[in-house]
Design a protein that fits this description.
alpha/beta, Rossmann fold, 7-stranded mixed sheet
Length: about 240
């Protein structure tokens, strides 16, 4: 648990020991704050994209990277058969403490149990791929967890806006051989830092291309207020 910075913070909040938020540092030279109360929000406080994804859920649902369990709890309370999954031991403990009935402590790639009608990857859930080159592996694994006719609901953001614009309207993107949406993060909480980890933000057109290469259809369901979007992926007949 000492390296599970995210999980430690969730447990503290759940136990009434909230005194600070998680600080994140990224390879884009960005320092940001992840407010813990936001991870425990209810449906009415969720962005439109997340609300729409939850409304589109059908059949049995796998909530990948369930965190504190807010999405799973909403679906469960609506009578949906939902299973949360997270590789953070603290997140699993927190979600279970909040009342999520079905929850799995596992890395998504290590899970190969039952199949589902809907797989959710919210709060930029595609980010767990880490790098663009790994998206095929992730989609292939998720496809193997889908029932026939199933769907994957995923949101992400196009972070091109974070780069400077030149006089011709183009963007100054570092020529380092990497896709601009590949970011390395570190979390800090109560003086403890997590190991660095890779996270991916992928623009919709790139996601659509990668999905179709995997024989998945990709539909743009809706767009958010700041370069974010919700997409639905399904196996093509």
């Amino acid at each position: 648990m000492s390296r599970d910075i995210f999980g430690m913070a969730l447990i503290d909040f759940q136990n009434g020991n909230y005194s600070e938020d998680i600080t994140t540092y990224s390879s884009l030279n960005e320092k940001d704050i992840l407010p813990l109360p936001y991870l425990f929000r209810d449906y009415d406080a969720m962005p439109l994209i997340e609300q729409k994804a939850l409304d589109l859920c059908r059949g049995t649902v796998l909530d990948v990277g369930c965190g504190a369990g807010s999405h799973s709890l909403y679906l469960q309370n609506k009578g949906v058969e939902v299973t949360g999954l997270d590789e953070s031991e603290g997140a699993v403990f927190t979600a279970r403490s909040r009342g999520v009935n079905n929850i799995i402590y596992s890395n998504i790639y290590d899970y190969s149990g039952m199949k589902f009608d809907t797989i959710l990857l919210l709060m930029n859930g595609i980010g767990i791929a880490g790098q663009l080159i790994e998206v095929h592996r992730l989609l292939s694994h998720l496809e193997g967890l889908l029932n026939r006719g199933g769907q994957i609901l995923v949101d992400s953001s196009d972070i091109i806006y974070m780069f400077e614009v030149d006089d011709d309207g183009g963007y100054w993107i570092p020529n380092n051989g990497k896709y601009y949406g590949e970011v390395e993060f570190t979390m800090e909480y109560k003086g403890l830092k997590s190991p660095p980890f890779n996270w991916l933000y992928v623009d919709y057109n790139r996601l659509k291309q990668l999905a179709e290469e995997q024989n998945l259809s990709c539909e743009l369901v809706c767009e958010g207020t700041h370069y974010d979007y919700l997409a639905r992926l399904r196996v093509q007949p």
